[in-house]
UniProtKB/TrEMBL annotation, chains A, B, C, D:
Name of this protein: Inositol 2-dehydrogenase
Species for this entry: Belliella aquatica
Residue intervals of the GFO/IDH/MocA-like oxidoreductase domain: 124-244
Pfam families: GFO_IDH_MocA (PF01408), GFO_IDH_MocA_C3 (PF22725)
SUPFAM superfamilies (alphabetical): Glyceraldehyde-3-phosphate dehydrogenase-like, C-terminal domain, NAD(P)-binding Rossmann-fold domains
Similarity comment text for this entry: Belongs to the Gfo/Idh/MocA family.
Alphabetical list of InterPro entries matching this protein: Gfo/Idh/MocA-like_OxRdtase_N, GFO_IDH_MocA-like_dom, Myo_inos_IolG, NAD(P)-bd_dom_sf
Start and end residues of each Gfo/Idh/MocA-like oxidoreductase N-terminal domain: 4-116
Organism ancestry: Bacteria, Pseudomonadati, Bacteroidota, Cytophagia, Cytophagales
């Protein structure tokens, strides 16, 4: 079986995770180059410019992990160079730019996968399987709890696009993935309770978002940027034949009973620890699909749709009323594939 | 210490629970009479008409467990007769009638307690204590899951006032009780998925209700009339210093591990089993407050306020927009104490 | 259906539990008298001497809850008076005295039930059912954890017969009840680690006891007189088709997550809280069996057999070797029915 | 910092785990060669004879993962060649041979680490920390449950040395590791219930083993070769200040509630999945200790001591009496360091 040859642009936190997985954990792939002007460690492959990497004659697929504001440009370059693309979320903060580059990707007949890694988490995979196998029956209700351990820096917040586009976007994708149908309308309430930097960035840090699907079923997401007890990632699905839920992962299973109570471990602290497995499986699936010439498990349109839910949530908070996805798409979008 | 002398009107399911608790579990109280034309068992106390019971010269307090459409009339009669009142929820389905009788109660200087028994459940009491002791810090978010094992009969549904007034009203009260502050605005999405009888009654059986409090914090309630796995009553509170949640009670703690998985018991089936303790404590607190001449732990106004949240939720579903409590009160109410 | 008429001897902690259950919770029974010279509260029935109670012409069954050293005498008197007997454990600390009175009971053709209340606990009942229904397959191994929150007083310890006869005897009975077969050999290791009073009483407070059954399967019990975190009562069964275990009961289901960890409630503190339900069901089954003229669910021989396991455990610790039940019975017993 | 250069002898299941960890997961180490005549895959390093590997001039440490009956010979060769040694358990089935090679290792001043990988499992590490930090207070009792999903083949069983030396040896080591003190006496009961091959091999598959430590405290281990629900690896520690326990790891956290009950995942199936992390950390600690010239975390004497507990357990079952470690050591050993 042939090996896929790839390059990684951006060797920050996520870039390094993908690089290590590609190098050590995944078969049938070779990393020919990385590109990161600020990364100096010798890791056994050349560190070249992004342009050179994209145009490297042996590289078939590019993993884009650079800062958000470069994603669309690199996608565009990759498309023109005929390279397949794995791009970390978000694609871009401008929906017009997203649409533009999606068109380029389509015209170039390359494949693009958005990095919604949580879809590959064993807990959420299990819930998805239970739904698909009919164990839940007709699904009536989905509940997602998604809380970060601490808000990002003010600097990050200012260029993040806001909590819905930066953080909740994972939950919006999950809401589509688990239910396997499209969101029609969004209502959100939100506040800024956790830090001055969030208020200074004019952002929110706490929200409850209600989603209505096209068939009248519903989902609710609750978010916080600051759960003092760690990274809280839970999900519950309810339907005519049953209910299933998944809890957080913990570093160990201990419970200590003393005179003050029964005490156990906190959840794994953040996405690096919690989603270790999902980052690995995500990249495996990307490589495997390229090798087998199969559709990628997550498309650029998946990214676009999650983004439109986020924009609807933003508008809902601003106007304090439910907002339909149609409203967003008619406003912002001419033609979505 | 003196004994309080009481009578019980209505010896259906709830009436019998209260009667047994008053007779066998609670000190300093004597049941002098019951009133139920359809109840024929000899339980050692006379079964007389409701009017005779209310006017019995030795009875100081009346426990009203008769059908909903008689509550307001009996409250009115009790007020006129100078008797203290414990009334099962709901007070009445008409907010005007509630206001009218609350005024009579106030003028007569008798005490009225509404039967929001869940406030006395050990799980919810624990959450309330954690909030009050500051263990949660500044509270940002409350989540309530409340699902019945099966919808009531079509006949019951038709006269129930709808799911929000009949079932969710307990959750609306809980949302006020746990947070200790007032709800300002309500948004609800709902559907009828579980049975034809719900659709025939033109009612709903599944809902997500978002509540905004006066200080911008928020709560979300999810309901179903039919959880095939039993009575699902959970709650979670989240704030700056931590998160606490309570789970369902189960009949036993067993887990069976076999080749198919790990299997445990389902939640206690319905309110009779789950809220056994809260019914007992509720009645103890009622009797104790009367003996010590203290304010009752739940007032008629508490019933009224939960009712207004329910009416706002109904209107929100009808109009698909958030509805303020003020809107309901200005519409329906002249002057609420 | 007729009512059984009973009397209660001894109104200490356990006597009061039984009295309350007989009076308020159990149907088809009347308490005609109690007997306790140190009990002065008016509870609506006469407080008479034990002899008068036993010979009361209308009393059919006697509930013996007096101090241990009176049990055998009262059993003997009841047998002579033709009264059925419910006796709290232990029957007597002398196996000869136990055998003597069991013979009197047999000759008098009255029924005797020993108060091994834990058999009626919902958790242990569930395990027993799983075994009987074949869910565990061939049972290979039973594990019992049984720890008290604190050792009794020195005075109590001195007349208790030692930990195995006083405390572990419940676990020995449980080991027979769950497995449904007889213990053949016992090996025990023990120590006195928890308090000076235990050492002063020349008793033990910590032990691991291995039981071999007649078919070669096995059980292990671990005990402590002092679990600082409360009353620890767990059990696990393992066999060819699966494993099942039961955990402690807790006062509520809360878990609090804060920056220090995840914190839950401790087990219910002691037998009064933990075994509330089993005391009630135990007495119901006693009354029901008398009414229906059925065998009592626990016999005097059950008490005798648990006692012989305890004596074997004592001897095992003394000699540091496994001790067979046959050895004990040949030593102490001429003929056991 | 320098890199340690190593070779791996034996590329079976465990050998491959260690090779992958050394190659991909652990820093400051290079694998220069492997040796396995039955391993044909190209993994980028030469596959040479064991003798050549041991005498390879650049190899500083040898990882021995070959069949048990070769361990002592390779240890001996490594010692003579001045190479540090990591050896999978067991060292050898003959205690005389173990002593002989330990002397050679000592004389050659090389370091030997036995592969008791479970010491590095995050759950057991947490328990060890709680004990060391005093959270348990004076430790009275340790309980270990250790059950395999299925017995090995008849062929394996015949050369395994028996369950105590092959499987329970991990638990004996754990009993020393967690308690931090030496076992003085052993009593074991055992049976063969799970398969005909176990009986044919004249081995046991189910046991309860009681350990007494030199200070009178105690431990109990229960084993089965066949837990139909998977690999069951739990531990509990009890002392004056509290109790702590660790449960199995599961592939996901889901619970499905349907009309039949609440259903969750089974434990991770076997040591490859459960102890992934402990194999990695074990090898990291080995390499790190070599680099820093520190004592290895597990010594050859640790292996010897676990082995003597196993021999005492075997003798206890054979004679049905407690057996002291002294008895074993005086019988088998002249001078143990």
């Amino acid at each position: 079986m042939k090996n896929i040859k790839v390059g990684v642009i951006g060797m920050g936190r996520i870039g390094k995770i993908h690089f290590d997985n590609l190098k050590n954990q995944i078969e049938h792939v070779e990393v020919l180059a990385v590109s990161d002007p600020f990364f100096e460690k010798n890791i056994g492959v050349p560190n070249i410019t992004a342009e050179d990497l994209i145009h490297h004659k042996d590289i078939e697929a590019v993993i884009i992990c650079s800062p958000t504001d470069t994603h669309a440009d690199y996608i565009s370059l990759c498309a023109k160079a005929g390279k397949h693309i794995f791009c970390e979320k978000p694609h871009d903060l401008s929906i017009d730019r997203v649409l533009e580059t999606l068109k380029e990707v389509k015209d170039a007949e390359v494949n693009l996968m958005l990095g919604f890694n949580r879809r590959f988490d064993p807990n959420f995979q299990k819930i998805r399987s239970l739904v698909q196998e009919g164990e839940i029956g007709d699904v009536h209700l989905l509940k997602i709890t998604s809380r970060d351990p601490a808000p990002p820096s003010l600097e990050y917040l200012k260029s993040s696009g806001g909590m819905f586009l930066d953080m909740t976007i994972h939950d919006f994708d999950m809401a589509r993935f688990i239910m396997g149908k499209e969101v029609e309308e969004v209502y959100a309430v939100a506040g800024a309770f956790t830090s001055e930097s969030v208020q200074e960035a004019n952002d929110i840090d706490t929200a409850i978002i209600t989603l209505k699907y096209e068939d009248g079923t519903m989902a609710v997401i609750d978010n916080s940027r600051k759960a003092i007890y760690g990274y809280d990632q839970r999900l519950e699905i309810f339907g005519s034949k049953g209910m299933a839920k998944v809890d957080n992962n913990k570093p160990d299973t201990h419970v200590l009973y003393n005179e003050h109570g029964a005490h156990g471990a906190l959840p794994l602290n953040f996405f690096m620890e919690r989603y270790t497995m999902s980052y690995k499986v995500e990249m495996q699936k990307f490589i495997q699909a390229l090798i087998e010439d199969q559709p990628l498990p997550i498309s650029g349109v998946d990214g676009l749709k999650a983004m439109m839910i986020a924009l609807a949530a933003q508008k809902s908070v601003a106007l304090n009323r439910p907002v339909t996805i149609k409203e967003i798409s008619e406003e912002k979008v001419k033609n979505i594939s």
